[in-house]
Amino acid sequence: MKKIIIAIDGPAASGKSTTAKLLARKIGYVHLDTGAMYRACALAAKRHQTNIDDPSQIMKIMSDIKIDIQYSNNGNLIFLDGEDVSEEIREPDISRLASAISAKRHVREKMVELQRELGKSGGVIVDGRDIGTVVFPNAELKFFMIAPLEIRAQRRYQELLANNKKANFQEVLRELKERDLADSSRVLAPLVPAKDAIQIDTGDLSIDEQVDLLYGYYQNLMVGS
Ligand code: CDP
User: Fold this and answer.
1) Which of 35, 101, 117, 174 is most buried, most CB within 10 Å of its CB?
2) How many Cβ atoms sit within 10 Å of the Cβ of residue 24?
């Protein structure tokens, strides 16, 4: 059967990564978490004390670092210069820095190139902000996931607690709001639905329902092809 590209875009904590991971397992595809790649760039910038508003410093760090992805049954493992940083990149300060650094041209150019390389043979579910619009505009199936801010904040808050991280609900809410605004209003690859994306509101859906809904669209497409 033909191996397609499935793009899932949407705002922070809308359920993209969890859905993409489970859907990939169900179909037998791999899941590529592009947010994790921008998070790894942010971690590198933090460690090297890069001034991200200085283009020459951004260029230097982007040519110095190496980011690798390994697919595992439990999600992507992200390596920065050979070190597994999959846990560390989930810290809230890295979320903020990822949003800031991902607005920089050199960062996006390098990451988009890597993402296209990783996804070029198909059989992949790619989640992010600009997958259906910029990275894979010809993806056969595109979703745009949304959910009310309060619900997304509640999910992210619970996720942080479950991972034994300190969290304050109001802070999580504020951080998501600021990041959504920054991601949607930036000049380069802003968070906007592709014209041909199927919008999914996950506000009232369980994870299983989300996965089943997307799987249904996938099956319909494959039957018709
Ligand atoms: O998991 P969460 O939804 O909080 O965020 P993420 O998907 O890990 O992405 C972290 C940040 O990376 C986002 O706030 C975006 O600014 C940026 N990003 C991007 O610019 N383009 C992508 N394709 C994916 C993420």
Assistant:
1) 101
2) 23
Question: Is 171 a member of any domain?
Answer: yes
Helix axes 34-47, 92-101, angle to 10 degrees: 100
What is the Cα–Cα distance from 75 to 77, expressed in whole angstroms? 7
Residue 95 alpha carbon, nearest atom of ligand 1: 10
pLDDT at 74: 79
Start-to-end C-alpha separation, the chain: 10
Instruction: Give the closest residue (by CA) to ligand 1 atom 21.
Output: 129
Q: Which residues line ligand 1 (CB under 6 A)?
A: 12-13, 17, 34-36, 38-39, 95, 98-99, 102, 128-131, 179, 183
CA of 225 from ligand 1 middle (Å) equals: 32
Q: Using the atom order of ligand 1, give the atom closest to the CA of residue 103.
A: 20
Q: Give me the CATH number covering residue 159.
A: 3.40.50.300
Asked if residue 225 is part of any domain, the answer here is no
Helix (H, G, I), strand (E, B) or coil at 100: helix
Who has greater pLDDT, 165 or 83? 83
Please check whether residue 78 is in contact with residue 40, taking contact to mean a CB–CB distance below 8 angstroms.
Answer: yes
Number of Cβ within 10 Å of residue 104's Cβ equals 20
pLDDT tens column, 2-38: 999 999 999 999 999 999 999 999 999 999 999 999 9
pLDDT in tens, 138-178: 999 999 999 999 999 999 999 999 988 889 999 999 999 99
Number of structural domains (the chain) is 1
